Amino acid sequence: MKPLQMVDTKTQYFKIKPEVDAAVMEVMESSMFIGGKVVNDFADNLAKYHGSKHCIPCANGTDALQIAMMALGLQPGDEVITPSFTYIATVEVAALLHIKPIFAEVNPQTFCIDPEAIEKAITPKTKAIIPVHLYGHAADMEKIMAIAAKHHLFVIEDNAQAIGCDYTFSDGMVKKTGTIGHIGCTSFYPSKNLGAFGDGGAMFTDDDELAARLRMIASHGQSKRYYHDVVGCNSRLDAIQAAILNIKLKHLDEYISARRKAAGFYDRAFAGNKSITVPFRDGNNKHVFHQYTLLLHGVDRDGLHKFLADEGVPSMIYYPVPAHRQKMFDAFGGSDFQLPVTDWLTERVISLPIHTELDEEQQQFIVDKVLAFLNK
Ligand SMILES: *Cc1c(COP(=O)(O)O)cnc(C)c1O
């Protein structure tokens, strides 16, 4: 059996190595390392894949979120409503811009921000809602967009974990996550579903003016070369990453199918086990399984994590400390937020290996070890 890993980007690379290597060589021979045709082509292809009018590449997913908040004109003292049950980047950039994160509770089934909790968190200072499509399952975007419209709020989707996820509205309209809010943000961190061989990120919008502003801010606030209209930053996707991503994008749907197939195997293997809740799949959602995360009931979670490690099975806790309890947010009154569902989930989740290269022999081994611990 191949050794088990949380992700296996190496085997994935070797399957498309000739194509990737040729694309990288081409960039090196052209010596066009920043910007240029390769980056523009990738942005066009990714916009097309998403059915989005504009795709603006940038240096990473964290920058994408920051630039989105800057482009929407959010000011120090404004409030944004976000989940606490997320990767820190979602909320850190708000704090960096002196915008106050207001942590809202998540739905215990989807792990995504709860629309009712959003409505309760709205104040006159609220400017935006930042749903996170956690683990690859979309937040309840139909309700979130309705709340945003009613209260004149912006929506920035953190789509770092859900690229390629289809979300179906009640009228049958299907959209990719990341193209539903005013701006969608994603990451090409190597372990993400569309991973580069380094850092990368992108922003999506259908709004021409907003697209121009995002582009300008990502490029030192420059409207034309050496004319700087607003304070921006330096956030670029480099051409080598774009060349690699352009090739991997052609395989993205195949990668998603492989993840969904692996998730299906786990679902069947754990079905009916009273100690485990397998990931919820809402009917309006095509879960892309960035993570396969179990919810444990009456199980020593940290004991299971250690047992699995001793048996050669990696597992991860995403995330052991929710954002509102991070020291970083002490100054923002983070621990004043009462988020019992978030706390409850934080103590009970465990993520098993899931990636495009898992085979059934490996999965059966993982399942057997999990069940062995539960039956001890
Ligand atoms: C990975 C991730 C980010 C940040 O992306 P980077 O490219 O690492 O900066 C933001 N939000 C979520 C939910 C993520 O998973």
List the helices and strands and how they pair.
Blueprint: H1 9-15, H2 17-30, H3 37-50, E1 54-58, H4 61-71, E2 79-83, H5 89-96, E3 100-104, H6 115-121, E4 126-129, H7 141-151, E5 154-158, E6 166-168, E7 174-176, E8 183-187, E9 201-205, H8 208-218, E10 222-224, E11 227-228, H9 239-250, H10 252-270, E12 276-277, E13 292-296, H11 301-310, H12 340-348, E14 349-352, H13 360-374
Parallel strand pairs: 2-3, 2-4, 4-5, 5-8
Antiparallel strand pairs: 1-9, 6-7, 8-9, 10-11, 12-13, 13-14
Helix pairs in contact: 2-9, 3-9, 4-5, 4-8, 10-13
Bound molecules: pyridoxal-5'-phosphate.
Can you offer a commentary on this structure?
There is one protein chain. The chain folds into two domains: 9-249, Aspartate Aminotransferase, domain 2 (3-Layer(aba) Sandwich), CATH 3.40.640.10; 252-374, Aspartate Aminotransferase, domain 1 (Alpha-Beta Complex), CATH 3.90.1150.10. Strand 6 (166-168) and strand 7 (174-176) form a beta hairpin. The mean pLDDT is 97. The chain has helices at residues 9-15, 17-30, 37-50, 61-71, 89-96, 115-121, 141-151, 208-218, 239-250, 252-270, 301-310, 340-348, 360-374, and strands spanning 54-58, 79-83, 100-104, 126-129, 154-158, 166-168, 174-176, 183-187, 201-205, 222-224, 227-228, 276-277, 292-296, 349-352. The chain has a seven-stranded mixed sheet, sandwiched between helices. 39% of the residues lie in helices and 15% in strands. The structure holds pyridoxal-5'-phosphate. Pyridoxal-5'-phosphate (PLP) binds at residues 60-62, 86-87, 89-90, 132, 158, 160-161, 187, 189, 199, 201.
